[in-house]
Write a structure and sequence with these properties.
The complex is a heterodimer of chains A (about 260) and B (about 120). With about 260 residues, chain A is of the alpha/beta class. Chain A has one domain: Rossmann fold, CATH 3.40.50. Chain A contains nine helices and nine strands. A seven-stranded parallel sheet of chain A has the order 5-4-6-3-7-8-9, sandwiched between helices. In chain A, strands 1-2 form a two-stranded antiparallel ribbon. The longest helix of chain A is centred in the N-terminal third of the chain and has 16 residues. Chain A is globular, with a radius of gyration of 20 Å. Chain B is of the alpha+beta class. Chain B has a single domain, classed as hypothetical protein PF0899 fold (2-Layer Sandwich), CATH 3.30.2320. Chain B has two helices and six strands. Chain B has a three-stranded mixed sheet, with helices on one face. In chain B, strands 4-3-5 form a three-stranded antiparallel sheet, with no helix packed on it. In chain B, strand 1, helix 2 and strand 2 form a beta-alpha-beta unit. In chain B, helix 1 crosses helix 2. The relative contact order of chain B is 0.26. The chains are: A alpha/beta (about 260), B alpha+beta (about 120). The interface between A and B is large, with 50 and 46 residues. Strand 2 of chain A pairs antiparallel with strand 6 of chain B, so a sheet runs across the interface.
C-alpha cells in the first residue's frame, strides 16, 4: 500500500491541515490528571476539517439542485474515456460539468472539454501534489463553475485506490472503475475503496478475449467486500455494457433532483 | 499514502489543544486511534509525525497508535462479529446488509503534556 522512500511521501504530502479551525460543539479540551504528565482529552477526528468542508459543499449542491458523482479508480483503468463517453450520452438531457484532478498535466481536461461540458482542471501539485481531491480543493474549483446552470457534476478523482476513499468531498454517489487488465483480487486488496463506493465498473471488457481474466471472480470479489453493490461490466471503447451504467446514473440523479 | 497530511493535521489539532494558560507547554505523547479499515499505515504515519513535529510543541513527542479492529453488526440477524478477512457478509446468516460499528477511526483521543523541567 505504501510506496518506499521520500519521493512517495513528497508525492502524497498535502495541505489537508488548512490553518483555520471551525467551531464544534464540545470542542473545548477537558483537562484530566494522570500519573506523570497531564493528560488532556481531545477526542477529535483528525480529518474533521475535511468533513466540515465536505458538509459545506454538500449543502451548496443541495441548494443548487446539482447531483455530484465522485468517480475514482486506479491509474490507467479508462476513467477519462469512460467519462468522455458517459458525458456524450448524458448530454444534452442533463447539463453536466466536470472537475478533473491530476497531480500534473491538463491532458484529461483537454480531452473532456471536447464534450462541450464545462471542465475545471485541478493540478494537485499546487496543493502539495495530493494523492486525492480533498473537500477544500473541490470548494475552490467550484468558483469556476456556474452551479445554477448544472444538473450533474462529475468529479474525476486522482487515479488511486487508497487515499480518495478516505476523503468525503460532499458528493451524492461514488463509483470506482477497475479494468480487466488489473488483478481480479484488487477489491480484496483495497477494501475501503470498494466499501465506500455505491457502484463498481469492470472496464475494458473488449480485451477479455486476449486475457486470462476471470471476470466472474472479479465481480464476486467486489461483492465479497460490498454485497449488493451494482457491478457494471463495460468497455468505454465499444460502449458495451454502458446501458445499465447510464441507467444507474440517471436513477441516482432522479432520486436526488426528482 | 496521505500520511504526511494526516500527520500535519494531528500536529495542528494537538497544538490547538494545549490549554491557553499553559504557554510554552510541550506535548510528550499523542494518543491516536486508527481503525484497521482506514487507509493509514501506522509505521509511515509515525515517520511523518516525527518529521512534521519538528520545531513545534510536539517535537520529540511519541505517537501512541491504538489499532481498532473492524466490528460489524448484521442488520438481518443482529449477529456481531469482528471482520479480520476481506469479506463483509454476515458469517451467521450470509446477509450483506451490515453496519460497521468500528474500524474507520482516525481520532485523536488525548494529548499528554511533558513534565515541567
Amino acid at each position: 500500500m505504501l510506496l518506499d522512500g521520500i519521493n512517495a511521501i513528497r508525492a502524497c504530502h498535502h495541505k489537508e491541515g488548512h490553518p483555520h479551525h471551525h467551531p464544534h460543539a464540545g470542542d473545548a479540551p477537558v483537562e484530566t490528571h494522570s500519573h506523570g504528565g497531564r493528560e488532556i482529552k481531545v477526542v477529535r477526528r483528525v480529518l474533521d476539517a475535511n468533513d466540515f468542508m465536505a458538509g459545506v459543499n454538500r449543502k451548496r449542491f443541495a441548494e443548487k439542485h446539482v447531483f455530484v458523482l465522485n468517480l475514482m479508480s486506479s491509474p490507467g483503468s479508462g476513467k477519462t474515456t469512460t467519462l468522455e463517453k458517459t458525458l456524450q450520452h448524458l448530454m444534452p438531457e442533463f447539463r453536466c460539468a466536470v472537475i478533473v484532478g491530476d497531480i500534473c498535466t491538463t491532458q484529461d481536461a483537454d480531452r473532456l472539454a471536447a464534450s462541450g461540458a464545462p471542465v475545471v482542471q485541478i493540478n494537485t501539485d499546487e496543493f502539495g501534489g495530493d494523492c486525492h481531491l480533498a473537500a477544500h480543493v473541490i470548494e475552490k474549483a467550484l468558483g469556476g463553475l456556474d452551479l445554477d446552470s448544472l444538473d450533474i457534476l462529475i468529479v474525476e478523482n486522482i487515479g488511486n485506490l487508497v487515499c480518495p476513499a478516505e476523503f468525503d468531498i460532499g458528493e451524492d454517489k461514488r463509483a470506482v472503475i477497475l479494468s480487466v487488465t488489473e488483478g481480479e483480487d484488487k477489491p480484496l486488496k483495497y477494501p475501503l475503496m470498494f466499501r465506500e463506493c455505491d457502484a463498481a465498473l469492470l472496464n475494458k471488457i473488449d480485451l477479455l478475449p486476449h486475457l486470462d481474466y476471470d471476470i466472474k471472480l472479479a465481480a464476486a470479489n467486489v461483492l465479497q467486500i460490498h454485497p449488493d453493490m451494482p457491478v457494471f461490466e463495460t468497455s468505454a471503447k465499444t460502449e458495451a455494457g454502458f446501458g445499465p451504467w447510464l441507467e444507474w446514473i440517471k436513477t441516482s440523479v432522479k432520486e436526488k433532483l426528482g | 499514502m496521505h500520511e504526511m497530511g494526516v500527520a500535519m493535521q494531528i500536529v495542528e489539532i494537538a497544538t490547538a489543544s494545549i490549554p491557553g494558560h499553559l504557554p510554552g507547554a510541550r506535548v510528550a505523547k499523542v494518543n491516536l486511534k486508527v481503525g484497521k479499515l482506514s487507509a493509514i499505515v501506522p509505521d509511515s504515519l509515525t515517520f511523518c509525525f516525527d518529521v512534521v513535529a519538528k520545531d513545534t510543541p510536539l517535537e520529540g513527542a511519541r505517537l501512541d497508535i491504538t489499532e481498532i479492529p473492524v466490528q460489524a453488526v448484521c442488520n438481518a440477524c443482529r449477529n456481531e462479529w469482528t471482520i479480520d478477512q476481506p469479506a463483509f457478509s454476515c458469517p451467521a446468516c450470509n446477509s450483506g446488509d451490515i453496519t460497521l460499528l468500528t474500524g474507520r477511526e482516525l481520532d485523536i483521543e488525548s494529548i499528554e503534556l511533558a513534565e515541567e523541567e
